[in-house]
Each structure stands twice: as structure tokens, then as C-alpha cells.
Predict the 3D structure of the following.
Amino acid sequence: MVKESLFWLQGATTVLLAAGVAAVVLAALKARNVTRPVHALIEAGRKLGSGDYDARVEIDTGDELEHLGRVFNETGPKLRDMQRMKESLGLAAAIQHSLLPEKVPVLEHFDVAGRCVYCDETGGDYYDFIPLDAGGRRRLGLVVGDVSATALRPRW
């Protein structure tokens, strides 16, 4: 009877051990199904962060991770467009700034000043001082402009 009990006890232990090993192996395989896409997103995110706007990730899990991968793949081109827009706005700001007068005219009885403070990269403000000498009289023309183009701003 002791031998028979020992036999059943060894058999049950073997089955439980095999079930435990199988559970660990299945859990590791299932974990890889989650960690592999996450690691792919991390690597693609590093590339995107270093300026590679063509960084893509291919995830075919049929779940939220796949949806996250699609959203990630849409992000690079959008960031590239935003970077180009930022560079274009920087160039426009430099051009606009170069159009403003470098020197303020000195007048005998008046103090003249001009200043533009933009709330964005570029603003619609413009001013200039135009000397108007006519008939021996020294005169000064002032040009002031303000343009609002909110309809032209991109809506991200």
C-alpha cells in the first residue's frame, strides 16, 4: 500500500511539475507577444526622436498595440510637416524682420521710435520711415501696417 501511494504521489508530482513548466513556457511565449511590439515601438521611437521621420513599426497583433503602431506610423510624416512649417516660419520671420528699418530718423523737434513685438513666429505688423524732402522742406512719412491672417494658420 505504501508503494502504491508513493507511486501515485510521484505521478501527481510529475504531472504538476509538467503543468508548471508548461504554464511558465506558455506565459513566456505570451509575454513575448506583448514585449516584441513594445520593443519595436521603443526602437522606432528612438529613431523618430533622433530626427528619422521615416521611422515605422510593423505590428500585426490585432489588438491595441497594432492600433498604437498605426498611430505611431502616422506621427512621423506629421512631425516632418510641422518641422518644415517651423523652418518656413523662421525664414518668413527673418525676411519680415529684414524689411523693418534699421535706423530711426533723427528729427529736430520730435523723438521717433518703432518696435514690433510678435506673439507668434511671424506677425502681421510693419512700419517704415520714409524721408519726403519737397521744396527744400524736410519731411518724414510714416507707414504703419497690421495684417491678421488667422485663416491661413494651420490647425494641428
User: Anything to note?
Assistant: The helical segments are 2-49, 64-99.
